[in-house]
Specification:
It contains 2 helices and 7 strands, in the order E-H-H-E-E-E-E-E-E. The two termini are 28 Å apart. The chain has 116 residues and is mostly beta strands. A 7-stranded antiparallel beta sheet has the order 1-7-6-5-4-3-2, with helices on one face.
Length: 116
């Protein structure tokens, strides 16, 4: 039996919720923020709708081999400007682990968004 657990990460962004939402729904914007510091995102194909799928590539820096790693996000719930639930999978051969991620976006003030 596999144990499960919840991890909650929260962040206040200096933009309204509509703009924060746009960063998840626009492929060009996803490419600007997806991946850890030093990595890039050379491609993102976004289909943000229930049953839709996003495919992203994350490229490691040269000092880590420069390889591209792909992942998919399959959407199970989409409430515009408010909530996204999706199943995250690494798109590699023999990958069997996946996880459900839920993103909630709410106004923190007139000019900021709270994402968790």
């Amino acid at each position: 039996m596999t144990d499960t657990f919840d991890v909650v990460v929260s962040r206040i962004l200096p933009v309204p919720p509509e703009q924060a939402w746009h960063a998840w729904s626009d492929a060009d914007l996803v490419k600007r923020w997806w991946g850890p510091t030093g990595f890039s995102c050379p491609s993102a194909d976004v289909d943000l709708r229930v049953g839709g799928r996003t495919l992203v590539a994350m490229r490691a820096p040269a000092e880590f081999g420069g390889a591209d790693m792909y992942s998919t996000w399959t959407y199970t719930e989409v409430v515009p400007h408010s909530r996204i639930a999706y199943v995250f999978n690494l798109a590699i051969r023999k990958a069997t682990d996946s996880c459900l991620l839920i993103l909630e976006c709410r106004p923190a003030s007139r000019t900021t968004a709270s994402m968790r």
